[in-house]
Every structure is written in structure tokens, then in C-alpha cells.
Specification:
The complex is a heterodimer of chains A (311) and B (520). Chain A contains 14 helices and ten strands. In chain A, strand 9 and strand 10 form a beta hairpin. Chain A is globular, with a radius of gyration of 21 Å. The two termini of chain A are 35 Å apart. Chain A has 311 residues and is of the alpha/beta class. By secondary structure, chain B is α/β, with parallel strands linked by helices. Chain B has three domains: 229 residues, MetI-like (MetI-like fold), CATH 1.10.3720; 95 residues, 3-Layer(aba) Sandwich (D-Maltodextrin-Binding Protein, domain 2), CATH 3.40.190; 177 residues, Dipeptide-binding Protein, domain 3 (Roll), CATH 3.10.105. Chain B is built from 25 helices and eleven strands. The chains are: A alpha/beta (311), B alpha/beta (520). Chains A and B meet through helix 2 and helix 3 of A and helix 6 and helix 7 of B. Bound molecules: adenosine-5'-triphosphate and magnesium ion. Magnesium ion binds next to helix 1 of chain A. The site of adenosine-5'-triphosphate has 12 residues of chain A, from helix 1.
Chain lengths: 311, 520
Amino acid sequence: MIKVDAISKNYAGKSVVDTISFEAHNQEILILLGTSGCGKTTTLKMINRLIETDTGHILIDGQNIRDKKIEDLRMGIGFIMQNTGLFPHYTIQENIATVPKLLKWDKKHIQNRTNELMHKLHLSTDMLVRYPHELSGGQQQRVGIIRALIANTPVLLMDEPFGALDNITKSEIHTAFKSLDELKNKTTILVTHDVQEAFELGHRIALMDKGKILQIGTPKEMIYRPKNDFVSNFFASNRLLLEHKVTTLADLEKMFHIQDIIQPTLSAQSSLSAQSTVWSALQHLSTDKHDFDRYEKLSKAFAAYRKMQIT
Amino acid sequence: MMKQNFWTFVVEQHEKLFMQVIQHLGLTFSSLLLAIIVGIPLGILISRKEKLAHFILGTAGILQTIPSIALLGFMIPFFGIGAIPAIVALLIYALLPIIRNTYTGITGVSTNVMEAGKAMGMNSRQLLFKVQFPLAMPVIIAGIRTATVINVGVATLASFVGAGGLGEFIFGGISLNNSNMILAGAIPAAFLAIFLDQTIAFLQGLKFRNLNQWRVIGSLITIIALAYYFWPTPTSNKLKAGFTPEFMGRQDGDLGLRAIYGLYMNPKIISDAIMYKAIHEDQLDVISGYSTDGRIKAFNLKVLEDDKKIFPPYYAAPIIKSKTLLKYPDLEPVIDLLAGKINDSLMTEMNYKTDFLQQTPEKVAQDFLKSIHLYKEAGLRNAGKIRIGTKIFGEQYILAALYKMLIEGHTSYAVETKTGLGGTKICFDALVNDAIDLYPEYTGTGLLVLLNPTEENIKEVTQNPEKTYHYVQQEFKNKYGIQWLKPIGFNNAYALMMRNKDAHDQRIKSISDLKAYLSY
Ligand SMILES: Nc1ncnc2c1ncn2[C@@H]1O[C@H](COP(=O)(O)OP(=O)(O)OP(=O)(O)O)[C@@H](O)[C@H]1O
Ligand SMILES: [Mg+2]
């Protein structure tokens, strides 16, 4: 667990991070979301002390990060840089093996873990002998993720790890990423400026602007209970889509009788479940003419649900 | 014919050549190794302490600009003569490129990559060896390449302080007017520079990312450097001798000492400019020199009596092309004003004033001309320009100043002096090719170095200085169209000299005494 307590950072008298506080829990992905220059990277780097705080404290599992030897602190944190930071003079294999080698793992073990993670992130092991400049930007980013994951640190800090991916690859990698067991026992903080990605991956989202956190909450809270105009305006352009995405079939099921919609869908298509979003269910129903009625019924149920949420 | 001679020379001298190449490599590698050992850590240090960077790079930059000969001169009081001062001087030249490139290489590693390393929990040592150093390596190697090429070049000057190397042939050849000898030194030197540069480039191309492989190369360089020290060198005598390259190659020099006196000194070959300093600093005990040199008095040296007469006295006289004399008709009478005016003691006195009392050659010349009532203020200078050359030692500077004042005072010609030309060959070639119009030369040099006569001829014409003068005058006119004007007056002869005190203590008065002392 990471507890950030009123941290600030100034550069030449200009406040870049302004008394920010938040907590990131175990087994949680916390998103730091905000426009360019709002202080996301700075906040993240203060957690592994690449940047020192001016004021405030940061605790990891109750221990102040300043009380630890800096190398030990960082060994316990997987860090993914905004622009990968791969070593240009190391092959992909050597890049991934950097931390395990510092930890003196045996070769076989490193090799196995590497292959496993390469596979999970949809990278061919042929790439292992190449150098970073021989990979595409998106491939490099995934190598960066693997390098941060391999040592299975209890904390993972990710700075726009999927920035260089096209939308199709991005959603593939999102899916792969969400299903990683490696994330199960971790505290993850992920920085992004991509609203959809925040909603896709985040258990909770902290929305930042000009060095301050305006609101922290679950995706649902962010969309239905914005604390101020800035927050609601921030999501305005994606609002409809996001609403569909934060609502699951299970949410609707609690209030409406929609078994007849869900049941056949579930049996026919194993990819949908009660945890599926309204968005993906509608997407699914919209592809088949025979499902026209059920599509309409689900839309109506969602409209009713939405009305209740907002008022 | 030229080519034939060159190869004959190389074949004849191959042992010496090989020795010189080894010495040259040894000097280059040892200094390079030291420069790497000192320069890379310094470069790393200043990459971390920005404040120091300015100071260290500035200092190394200034050291780099010190002229090589001057630097070698500074070294003698601290390191004596031989390989050590040469290596220290070379080290100083090699430092700047290595420090600077290490610094640029390391500070050039992207902050992003450095942050990635830090974020993984690397400590500063790990960062240095796993990230900064390998990434900076190409730049550092480029610095080492630059340093190598500089050092191969500067190492030719090592022969000035008796450290050997290919400079022995190059500067010997210049003093002795022997083009084959110059080439035998210069070609291998150029080749070494290219070869080493390309070898390092090749090694760099192998992309050694592994420190171990670098260690192998490091050890190789060390071995070569060490081999140089354990290479058998001639053992030294009771007395250390240092002779100029010209003296080494002349019949009335080391060759004569061996042949007539049976005196084998195993001398170090050293430049005239540094020789006197070295004997003064007790780095040498016996040196070759000229009998009229002012430094004999200045440094309290004893000229050993040449009891077997191998150093015949020679005249000094200005030499000039006959056609120049025709072109400037007023010239000869004015130059001849000085003929016979300067005897041995006057010349020695003037040399002493510049060498020891540190007076400028111009002042010494003016005082002298005034004392013989020949001094006149320079008047109009519109009738043409005369260029006077000199070799690179004090006496010649004084003579040039004398002629300049004389000509400008008594004629309407302007005079330009080109002083400090690097040796007999350079002066003579300049004269032949009309780069200068006249310079003071010695009949002995004219005879032995420029004319290369047969043994019998030498015997015949060196019976007295008068005869030598007439012979060279005749030969130069026929061969080169060059005129020897009237002798200036003083005799110039080679001499062996020791510190007065030593000579007195060991009761050495003549060269035969020296021989007896050494074989005792
Ligand atoms: N070393 C520094 N010196 C001065 N200003 C800095 C420094 N580092 C960052 N800043 C400023 O601090 C602000 C926040 O920077 P930060 O990198 O945290 O932004 P960010 O939210 O990560 O933006 P992006 O989405 O573009 O990566 C920016 O305005 C930036 O210009
Ligand atoms: Mg950023």
C-alpha cells in the first residue's frame, strides 16, 4: 500500500505538484489522469525518489520511503518510464534481465520468466536478440513493461506505458495486461492522459489538474458523481461511451428483470458474463438482426438505470 | 637511384630502424597507457563534479598548447633525460583528448537511460560500469585514437631528450642532409600512426560491450609498454654522454672518436638545445658542442683537448647564390665589412651574452657594431629585400642580427630574417630553392655534410682551415652556383666537453685522458 501525504514540488518557485494526497491499495490499479504538464510524471517519480519531494511524506507499507536505502526502495518498485528508457547498448534479453541479474537470479529462471512474459504481452521471442532501436515504439514499450514486471516487485509505477500503441493493439494489450497474474498481488499506479484507458484499466482514478488532485474515485463515481464542473467537463466529450462502459450487466440485473436478455447471450457467447459492460453487450447484440428486440430492451433498461444514477 | 639508395639505407640500418620502431611504440604505448589510467578516471570525476570540469579541462587544454620542445625542456630538471621525460611529455599531450572525450561521452548519456538505471535500483558504481561507461565507450575510444595519433607524431621529438624513437633518423637526417635517413624515420612514423589508428578503429568495430574483453586489450597494451622497458638497451658507461644527431653521423664527430681514439661512449642522441641544460643539471657528463659556444662559459664547462686532432677547425662564412650577388650589387662589399672582424674570443663573448646574460641577439649585435664603428641607423629601405636564414642556435641568431643591421645601415636594402630553421639541410635547401638569400655556414659542415667527399679528399683538404675553405668555395660554386663569402674570422670546431669540476676531479684534460679514465 502506498500512502501519499500532502506532497509538493516546486521548480524555480513555480508549483508543479501542490499538496497532493492519495492512497493506492494492494491489488489495485490507481490511475493518475490529467492533461499534459499537470504533474503526473513528477508525482510518480517522487514515489521512487527519482525526484525528491519538497514537503510531505510518502509511505510504502507504512514505512517512510526516506528511511530506506534508496537502492533497496527502488529494487522494490517496478518502474516504467514515459519513453521506455531501454538501454540502447543491451539486447532486449539483456534489458529484461537487468534487474534479475542485480538480484543474482540463475540464468534458467530468468530465461523462463522472460519467455513467459514475452508471450503474455504478445511479443515474439525472436526479438530477444535484437537491440531496442530494432523494435517499433509499441514493442519497445511492452519490453519496458516486461522489464518492470519480471522481478515481481510489490509496487508497480507506470508512466503512460501504452502511449505508442494503435487502438487495436492497445485494446489487445489492455486485455492481456488486465489478466496478468503478476498484477494480482501488487499496488499499481498508472499514469495516463487517455480517458478511455483510465476507465478501462483503473479500479480508481485520480483526476489531476495544475498540480492538484481534483477528485479520486471509482470510474462510476467519476462519471456520475463529479465533484465540480471541471471534473464533469473533463469527461463530457466521452460521456456517453464511458457511462456504457462503467455499467455492468450485473448492475442492471439488480434493478431490472433482464434475465431474458442476458441468459441466451451468455449461453450463446462465452465471452460475455454478468461482469461484462453494457457497452460490450450492446456491441454484441447490435451485430445480429435477430437480437434487435433485446438490444432495444437493454438500451431502455440502461436509460432507466442512468436516470436513477444521475438524479 | 633515389629509391635504390633508400632501400639500401633501410637494409643497412634495419637493426637500428627496428630498435627505433620498438622505442617509438614503447614511448607511445607507455604514455598512452598512463594517459588512459589518469585521463579516464579524471574524465569520470569531472562528469560528476561540474565545477571541477572547467578547471581540469582548462588546465589540460593549456598544457596541450605548450610547444613540445619547450615542454621537453621543462621536464629535464624534474625527470632528467631519456624515456621518462619523453613519456611524461607525451602523457601530457595525450591527456586532453582522453579526459575531454570521457567527459563528453559520459555526460552525453541520455538522462532518460540514466533514470531507467536508477529506477531499477542500480547504485552509482553499477550505473557507471553497466550504463555510462559502455555507452560512452565509442566517444572515449575516439579520444584514445586522437591521443594515439598525436603521440606517434610527438614521439618523434623524444629523440631531443635522448629517448630514441624514429626521431633519431628524422632529425639526424635533417642535420646530416641525408634524405634517406629522414624518410627511413618519417615513413615508418606515418605508417605507425595510420596502423595504430586503424587497429583501434577495428577493435572498436568489434563492439566489445563486455568489460572483460577490454581488460584483454588493456593487458596487451601494458605488455607492449613493459616489453619496451625490458628490451635490451646498451649499458651505460661510467660517464653518460649525449651527442647531437649531427655529431653522431660526422667523421669529425662520433665516428672519429671511435676510429681514432677508440672511444665508445654509447651516447644518448639529444638535441643541441637540450644538451647543455642536461649537462648543467647533471643528467649528462660528456657532451658534444662547438668550441665557441657561449654556454661553455655560462655553464662552467671544460673543453677537452683534442690531442689526436680529429676536430679540425673550420671557418664560418655567409653563403649566398652568385646570381643574388649580381642582382644586389651593393651587397657583397657590405657583408665583407664584417670579414675577419670576429675572432674566437669575441664570438665566445657574444655567445655568452645571449646564452647566459640573456641579452637579445639584436642588442649584442648593435653593441658589437658600435664597438668597431660600423653601426649606422637604418635608412631608406626601398631597393629590394634580402632574406637571411639561420640555424636554430644562438650564434647564428647573432650573426643574422649583425648582417641585418649592417645591410640596412649601409645600403637601401630591406632585410628579413628567418631564424631558427631546424638544421643544416633545411637551411641549405631553403637557400638552393630561393626561400632565403644567405645564411652563415661552417666550412666543416659544407665539406662533410653537404659535399660528401671521399676519405682521401677529406684528409687532403682538412690539413688546415684555409685549404678547406678554398675547397668548399670551389665545389659550391661549381655544384650549386653558391658563393662562400669571406670568412668572418672565428674558427668553429667540434669539441667534447665536461663539467669543469668533474674534469678537474678526475684529472681529465684531453680526450685521451677521458678514454683512459673510461677504460680504467
Ligand atoms: N526539472 C524541471 N524543471 C522545471 N520544470 C519542470 C521540470 N520537470 C517538470 N517541470 C514542469 O512541471 C510540470 C509537470 O511536469 P510533468 O512531467 O510532471 O507533467 P506530466 O503531467 O507528466 O505531463 P505529460 O503528460 O506531458 O507527460 C510541467 O509544466 C513541466 O514543464
Ligand atoms: Mg509525463
